[in-house]
């Protein structure tokens, strides 16, 4: 706990500790999330992701450390503070007999400056379900309704806890473009996810949390030294698959291009994926 | 730039009331089991038990008081216990707690729901009673007694229902616990049988709970004063009815404040 809280940050955390029994579920986390940033928190189940996020959302108390969310201690956040944040819970927003539009209209009524519910339905792609009751929606549609409820209050900061679990690939792509359009509107987002491609696709920075500790924070392309990691160049030569690790793949490819008369057979250049470095990181800390 | 002001309380209260009314009246199970069940009881019992309980008063006239008390119990205690336990386990409450909705608005919505369901139940019961069984409606100051017994009883049972919801794991377990308890209470509190014919020890047990006092207060509304002599106490004991129901309001309020949770116990 060296530096003080950053009052200009959307989220500022110093030395956060949460104990369950004699176990530290969150064990000294320091983090600053800038305004306008999309930050993805990665980590295995039970690593402390949801606990951390729910402390920031004001749902749980903390046992140590300092936290500021939009300049306010979430443990003391009142209605005015809640009006500035949007929350998409892992468990969703519950069952209802109301239609999608009614649910959103009611939700909007709690906020000082809400978005138009019909526009929000459009934004999440549920316009043709406006008159449908929540229980008649598919899993992916319900999740989009959860997101709609999270953003209808025009939050400056949006928490998304595993928002795309259970989505098919197309629904995830649509969801990603929704998140990008929210970013363009200036919304800060804290996302937890199990999908590394999602983090890579959306996040400005990712943080990896394991056993309650934030082991690294980096832009996705550099996590775990990924940016400096040697590339693997592979090709087929004399009927056999060849591959070579190299810090200078461009030079190697040029050399191969000179060696072969036309196309280099089955040429591929690969960097370690985010998943590779992530699995290595969480493996090391176990 | 000054922050926009939060919406006025009254508007959020109206929104929550509308939400709660839609949630109730659009759900077929709740309409059938909470609202129509007492009506079905009235129709069946009125047809089967058509005898004179003394002084030329029909059993149906007696049963009106009991079935209205049971209807109030269903609309308040059973409805709140099951409904709120369900909303706690499916995440509705946690979600609401994460919004700037004033917490009081949730309870205002629930009260609006109880009032609407109670009024609808009583109105249907009275119409069916009059049309099918020629039940005599209360007159004069009896309406006043009717109103305060219903209000006080429903307030006590609503608060108790909210408190009981915190004991249950989820809606299904709340229903499995509360429904049989309510049924037993109805049997020993003089809803289905003449209270003076119930064994004394059962009368004693039932007098610890609000239902007995609601039924007794409503008997004073629906039965001629001559029948007060049939009561175990020899009178309607309206003062004691008011006292016990008020005590339950206070106990219910304390229990609510001490036990209400916005999150599921399983949720950390």
Polypeptide structure, described:
The complex is a heterodimer of chains A (286) and B (268). Helix content of chain A is 30%, strand content 26%. Chain A folds into 3 domains: 1-79 and 157-165 and 184-227 and 275-286, 3-Layer(aba) Sandwich (Rossmann fold); 85-155, no CATH class; 230-270. In chain A, the strands form 3 sheets. Chain A has a 6-stranded mixed beta sheet with strand order 5-6-7-3-8-9, sandwiched between helices. The radius of gyration of chain A is 22 Å and the shape is globular. Chain A has helices at residues 49-56, 79-82, 100-108, 117-123, 139-151, 169-184, 196-202, 249-259, 274-284, and strands at residues 11-20, 23-33, 38-42, 64-69, 85-88, 157-161, 188-192, 205-210, 213-218, 231-237, 240-246, 268-270. In chain A, a hairpin with a 2-residue loop joins strand 8 and strand 9 (213-218). Chain A is an alpha/beta fold and 286 residues long. With 268 residues, chain B is mostly helical. Chain B has one domain (9-259). Chain B has helices at residues 9-25, 28-48, 59-89, 92-97, 103-133, 142-165, 171-188, 200-206, 210-222, 238-259. The longest helix of chain B is centred in the N-terminal third of the chain and has 31 residues, at 59-89. Chain B starts with 8 loop residues before the first helix and ends in a 9-residue tail after the last helix. The chains are: A alpha/beta (286), B mainly alpha (268). Chains A and B meet through helix 2 and helix 3 of A and helix 1 and helix 4 of B. Chain B: Pfam families: ABC2_membrane (PF01061). Chain B: It is a multi-pass membrane protein. Chain B: It is found in: Cell membrane; Membrane.
């Amino acid at each position: 706990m060296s530096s003080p809280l950053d009052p200009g940050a959307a989220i500022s955390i110093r030395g956060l500790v949460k104990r369950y029994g004699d176990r530290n579920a969150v064990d000294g986390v320091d983090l600053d999330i800038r305004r306008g940033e999309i930050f993805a928190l990665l980590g295995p189940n039970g690593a402390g992701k949801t606990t951390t996020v729910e402390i920031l959302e004001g749902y749980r108390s903390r046992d140590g450390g300092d936290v500021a969310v939009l300049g306010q201690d979430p443990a003391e956040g009142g209605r005015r503070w809640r009006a500035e944040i949007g929350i998409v819970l892992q468990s969703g927003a519950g069952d209802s007999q109301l239609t999608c539009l009614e649910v959103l209209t009611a939700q909007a009524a709690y906020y000082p400056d809400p978005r138009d519910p019909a526009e929000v339905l459009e934004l999440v792609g549920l316009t043709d379900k406006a008159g449908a009751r929540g229980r008649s929606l598919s899993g992916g549609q319900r999740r989009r309704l959860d997101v709609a409820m999270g953003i209808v209050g025009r939050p400056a900061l949006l928490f998304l806890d595993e928002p795309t679990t259970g989505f098919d690939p197309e629904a995830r792509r649509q969801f990603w473009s929704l998140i990008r359009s929210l970013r363009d509107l200036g919304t800060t987002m804290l996302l937890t996810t199990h999908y590394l491609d999602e983090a890579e696709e959306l996040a400005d920075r990712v943080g990896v949390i394991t056993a309650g500790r934030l082991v690294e924070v980096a832009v996705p392309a550099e996590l775990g030294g990924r940016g400096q990691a040697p590339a693997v160049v592979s090709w087929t030569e004399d009927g056999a698959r060849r591959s070579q690790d190299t810090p200078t793949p461009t030079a190697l490819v040029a050399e191969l291009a000179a060696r072969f008369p036309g196309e280099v057979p089955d040429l591929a250049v690969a960097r370690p994926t985010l998943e590779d470095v992530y699995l290595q990181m969480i493996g090391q800390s176990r | 730039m000054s922050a926009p002001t939060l919406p006025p309380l009254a508007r959020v209260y109206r929104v929550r009331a509308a939400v709660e009314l839609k949630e109730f009246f659009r759900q077929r199970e709740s309409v059938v089991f909470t609202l129509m069940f007492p009506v079905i009881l009235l129709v069946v019992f009125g047809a089967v038990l058509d005898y004179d309980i003394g002084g030329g008063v029909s059993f149906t006239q007696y049963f009106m008081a009991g079935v209205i008390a049971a209807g109030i119990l269903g609309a308040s205690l059973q409805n709140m216990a099951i409904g709120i336990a369900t909303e706690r386990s499916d995440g509705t409450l946690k979600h609401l707690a994460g919004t700037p909705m004033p917490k009081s608005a949730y309870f205002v919505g629930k009260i609006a729901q109880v009032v609407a369901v109670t009024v609808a139940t009583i109105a249907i019961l009275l119409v069916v009673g009059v049309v099918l069984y020629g039940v005599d409606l209360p007159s004069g100051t009896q309406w006043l007694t009717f109103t305060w017994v219903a209000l006080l009883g429903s307030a006590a049972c609503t608060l108790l229902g909210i408190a009981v919801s915190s004991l249950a794991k989820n809606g299904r377990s709340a229903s499995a616990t509360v429904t049989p308890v309510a049924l037993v209470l109805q049997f020993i509190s003089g809803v289905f049988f003449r209270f003076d014919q119930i064994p004394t020890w059962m009368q004693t047990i039932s007098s610890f709970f609000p239902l007995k006092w609601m039924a007794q207060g409503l008997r004073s509304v629906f039965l001629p004063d001559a029948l007060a002599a049939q009561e175990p106490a020899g009178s309607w004991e309206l003062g004691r009815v008011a006292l016990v129901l008020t005590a339950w309001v206070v106990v219910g309020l304390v229990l609510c404040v001490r036990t209400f949770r916005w999150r599921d116990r399983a949720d950390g």
